[in-house]
Amino acid sequence: MRLLVKAMALVAATLMLAACSISSPTQLIADEAAVAPLPDAFTYYPYEAGPDGYVPSKAGSATFVRRGNDYVTTNLPDIKGELDVRFAPVSENVYLLAAKVGDSPAVVYGFARYGDGVLSIALTPDKQTTGALARERRRSMPKTRQALGGLTIAADTNAITIKTGTALRYLGEMYADGHLPLEPPAVALIAEDPSQPLPSRLVQSGEDWIRVP
User: Fold this and answer.
1) Ranges of H-type helices in 38-77
2) What is the pLDDT of residues 169-178, one digit of tens each?
3) Which of 58, 77, 110, 163 is the most buried (most CB within 10 A)?
């Protein structure tokens, strides 16, 4: 699991501990539920928060190719094997993201938004996430409480372990509705032509992204 989170940290250009993630022992997004919202081949350029938007990160880029409805890269430093990323739709431009490394069955999940060639990924739960899930359990109907029964939260780290696809889907719907707070998302430019110069900044305006030359 630590290797997988390290791989996702490299791709997402965010510092993330293995103890602070959303994960499951095996894949909970079935092949037939996956979609391919990104280009068939692209370079992932991470950006980081700056004073006036997001600026290019010093973290290295990664190239991905589509394989079926998954995206695969093999050029991550210090990572042996492929990083395989899968998306499943939750609502318009919001996706569940599932990532695994090599032959390991363990999966790390995030919540992605994609538009204007920019991918943002929220990966990391915190105390606010735990509080939101506790409130949801208290005020929800029995069917919802049953769905949330398919996950456990580590009291010391806020890490979430998911046991059922129903629980994963419910988390995705909470995130899409703005009811699941997480650490700020990682942001990256998805470039089909790596020979083109990168924008100096990415500025978010509502649900749109502005590229500053």
Assistant:
1) none
2) 999 999 999 9
3) 110
What is the pLDDT confidence band of residue 78, given thresholds at 50, 70 and 90? low
Residue 205, H or E segment: strand 201-205
Q: What is the dihedral of CA 173, 176, 178, 181, to 10 degrees?
A: 80
* 3 state DSSP class of 17: coil
Spatial CB neighbours of 168, under 8 Å, sequence gap ≥ 6: 24, 28, 29, 96, 109, 150, 162
> DSSP labels for 136-190?
HHHHS-HHHHHHHTTEEE-TTT--EEE--HHHHHHHHHHHHTT----SPPEEEEE
Radius of gyration of the chain (CA): 17
Cα 6 to Cα 22: distance, rounded to the nearest angstrom: 14
Q: Rounded to an integer, what distance in angstroms lies between the CA atom of residue 6 and that of residue 23?
A: 13
Beta strand pairing call for 160-162 and 53-56: unpaired
Average pLDDT, integer, range 63-72: 94
Adjacent-strand bridge partners of 65? 41, 72
H-run or E-run covering 12? helix 2-12
